[in-house]
Amino acid sequence: MNFMSSRKNFLNKTHHFLLSFIRIIVIFISICLAFVMIILLPVAFDTAYNEIRLALFKEHVKQYTHPVDSKLWERISLSGNFGRASNQCGFIVAEVRTAMLKPDAIHESYMPILTDISFEGKYPYRNIMLYALNDKKNIENIKWYYPDVYERITYAAMTDPEAYILIFAETGYPPNFDPRCH
């Protein structure tokens, strides 16, 4: 009887110890998960919010008219920090297109919507740029001003003599918690 009661007492103590240990582990994991959620929730929210803004900007860009024989080759869309040494969020939609027209005629057809790069006034800063892809100087300008776009242009488009790119940019938004904008 003494052996059985000490064994039962030992099992009860072990059982209580294990339950207490499991409770502590569950509480610790819960606190860690809550901490992670507190940190990640704003990041997830702002990232999703900026993805929605980018989708709306893409739809806005689709409304522009193009020359009659212009064909869309590829559409590149990005959100992130596109300013050098800055802390801001921006959106870029670039359309690589082809047309049988001469570069001057293409430029003339887009002239009413083209703007220069400017960071004057209140954000967002908007600009629309046109580059013929068969011009080395234009390629260098894209590399300098829009390196993220340049990296995504296919080699085939860069070597097509009829290809050009329209770059629509909206920048200067506060970065908030979107990690792509820092």
Characterize the biggest β-sheet.
4 strands, antiparallel
- Output the number of helix runs: 5
Structural class of the helix and strand makeup?
alpha+beta
Average pLDDT: 88
**End-to-end CA span:** 71 Å
- SSE run: HEEHEHHHE
Strand portion, in percent?
Answer: 15-25%
Write the layout of secondary structure elements.
Elements: H1 2-61, E1 71-80, E2 89-98, H2 103-110, E3 125-132, H3 136-145, H4 147-150, H5 155-159, E4 163-173
Please, could you describe this protein's structure?
- The protein has helices spanning 2-61, 103-110, 136-145, 147-150, 155-159; strands spanning 71-80, 89-98, 125-132, 163-173.
- The protein is an alpha+beta fold.
- The protein has a four-stranded antiparallel β-sheet, with helices on both faces.
- The longest helix has 60 residues, at 2-61.
- The radius of gyration is 28 Å and the shape is elongated.
Summarize the structure.
This protein has 5 helices and 4 strands. With 182 residues, it is of the alpha+beta class.
Name some characteristics of this structure:
182 residues; alpha+beta; four-stranded antiparallel sheet; 4 strands
